[in-house]
Design goal:
- This protein is α/β, with parallel strands linked by helices and 405 residues long.
- It has a domain of 204 residues: Vaccinia Virus protein VP39 (Rossmann fold).
- Helix content is 47%, strand content 10%.
- A seven-stranded mixed β-sheet has the order 3-2-1-4-5-7-6.
- α7 crosses α8.
- It is extended.
- This is Methyltransferase type 12 domain-containing protein.
- InterPro entries: SAM-dependent_MTases_sf.
Length: 405
Amino acid sequence: MALPSSASATARMLTVPALLLLLSSAALLVFLILPALSPSPAAHLCACSPPTTTHTTTTVTTTTTTASPAPVTTSPADVAWLKSQLASNSLPLLASHDAWHRLRKGINPRTREQQLFDINRHHGISHYPDEEATNHTALPCPGELLVEEHHSNYGEPWAGGRDVFEFLANASALTPRDQVLEIGCGTLRVGLHFIRFLEAAKFHCLERDELSLMAALRYELPAQGLLYKRPMIVRGEDMDFSRFGDTVMYDLIYASAVFLHIPDKLVWTGLERLAGKLRPQRGRIFVSHNIKFCSRLGGDECTRRLTELGLEYVGKHTHDSLLFNHYEIWWQHHTPELVQTRLQKKKRKRKKKQRLKGGRRRRRLKKSLPPAPGTPLERVLLLYLDCVVQKSSSHACGGQGRRQA
């Protein structure tokens, strides 16, 4: 029994060192062989194809398009298109007023009077609580303007303003850069179309009626989104255009049914003040409805007065409405080249006459004065004699007067 026990112990003693030696050898072998088996980093990079970088170039073609100005006048093609739309939607002209009201539908159809009643009662259509009632309106507007009562102030449809604009813009070959003055623009029935067409600050207006100015400034300009155009609308009468500036020149001046309500003398005063503000040759003045301020004087006298102002009567024009049976008559005046040249010659002649008159006055004054002595000796003698005769002080005569006295 002792032998097997001794052999087993010996085997255990020999196995542990051998096992440690074997493991160390195996680890060293793995350490030496593994780098050879594993590809190097350089080999790894060379074995792979280099990454491909793709540059995608997107060519953007920018086309600069200059927007053509909107047409002033409705064309026959426009009229034909609208008629086709009316026909395709079965919208014929209604036969009677009752037929119109039978078609009057909607969630809450209300007249202007009913709308105004609700606005005044509720401080608006939809209103905030009482403590916040006035906190949400940047430009508070009277209810009468909100329901557009001022659109009925002219005795004819509001749409007639577009007709006036079309005629005047075409007749004067108006461009957006031109300067325009309206005498009596009222509530901007016509002016709105000019303001929209022209560049900013190119529309001027003189209006005397307070209600019309309120409608123009407090309702029409904000409601139409035209505040950025900055029209110059001035309250005034007596044809005082001084607030528009001394150097402004107008390409178009017009008065739509305004001179009817102004005394003839004041009309002529206005024309005299405006003639010098009308751009020579190109500028035009249009007056609608009548020219009684001129015809009451008689043809020859009117022509003479216009010529003195540098204006020339061109003729009568008529213009039909697009939407209703109506036409307007316009009289055109302008500053022709010949009249302008004649006025310039008269101005030059007047200046020359003033220069000659001034020269004669200077010559007469020169003759009335005693001739100045020319030599130093003459001046000394003149001073000495003056001291002797007038017995001047020693300060004036430099001491010579004292010795002589």
